[in-house]
Amino acid sequence: MAWRGVGTDNHIYWSRLSGSTWTTQQILADRRTNLAPALG
What we know:
Shape: globular
């Protein structure tokens, strides 16, 4: 799953489901967006 930060935080964060638990959120430090991530 990926999501954009809140408010002016334009980083993209991601996490994945490992069994029945979500992994700790990670930041894509070299990426930014002004829009919400979307599946293409």
